[in-house]
Amino acid sequence: MRNKDQAVVVFSGGQDSTTCLLWAKKNYKKVYAVSFDYGQRHAAELECAAAIAKKLEVEHTVMDTKLLGQLAPNSLTRSDIAVDTDAPEEGPPNSVVDGRNMIFLTFAAVFAKQRGVTDIITGVSQTDFSGYPDCRDVFIKSLNVTLNLAMEYDFNLITPLMWIDKEATWEMADELGGFDLVRNETLTCYNGVKGDGCGNCPSCKLRRRGLEDYLKRRN
Ligand code: ZN
Fold first, then answer.
1. If you measure from the C-alpha of residue 45 to the centroid of ligand 1, how many angstroms do you get, rounded to a whole number?
2. For residue 89, which of 6, 15, 32, 108 sits 20 to 30 Å off, Cα-Cα?
3. In terms of DSSP bridges, do strands 30-37 and 156-158 run parallel, antiparallel, or are they unpaired?
4. Residue 84's pLDDT is what?
């Protein structure tokens, strides 16, 4: 039995995945949100995710993937590694967790198949990929094929934000009636500050630039 009216959303409680959760709520009858505990420095991230899922009345599951943080220590999991203030000139930022999206999507796929669900939604974006190789479209398409072969199943990895920037992501949240929710309740900041964030980390800068651009043309 395939439940085409159901979807699983990979959900961190940040701007992008919350926008995807709103999008999924509009397009599916039942939505499951799955979050991952990979030893992130800020437990606040998982708390935000739980609070938003509750508010949106979405079933929420947190999966333990702490091993990932131990295998690939980085500035999001280790308090002794400072988060880069700006993107490095070469190479990925030190907030990259190697393999993260592959592992998250693989666990989400196992979870989905158990429930007869094929559609899995993730908020990755190639437009704002900031040096994260596993946010690129080619990776998602490749993983989709691999997951289908691995489990002999027709998964459908869906990426509503793949080709849009942060400004358009704000617009999408607004159109879905979630502008205030995304602005005030999500946590995107690498330093663990909810809403508008610390203002200094690369993630806050990217988010704020998009917000300011969107507000200029918002009625
Ligand atoms: Zn920040």
1. 12
2. 15
3. unpaired
4. 63
CA angle 32, 174, 33 (to 5 degrees): 10
Assess if residue 7 is contained within a domain.
Answer: yes
102 within some domain: yes
CB 58 within 8 A of CB 31: yes
Distance between Cα 151 and ligand 1 center (Å): 38
CA distance 26 to 36: 23
> Are 23 and 172 contacting, i.e. CB atoms less than 8 angstroms apart?
yes
pLDDT bin (cut points 50, 70, 90) of residue 91 is low
Find the 102 Cα to ligand 1 centroid distance in Å.
25
At residue 26, the pLDDT reads 97
Helices assigned H by DSSP within the chain: 15-27, 43-55, 66-71, 100-114, 137-151, 166-175, 179-185, 202-217
* pTM for this entry: 0.91
State whether residue 156 is helix, strand or coil.
Answer: strand
**The domain that contains 81 carries what CATH number?**
3.40.50.620
DSSP 30: E
Domain membership of residue 88 (yes or no) is yes
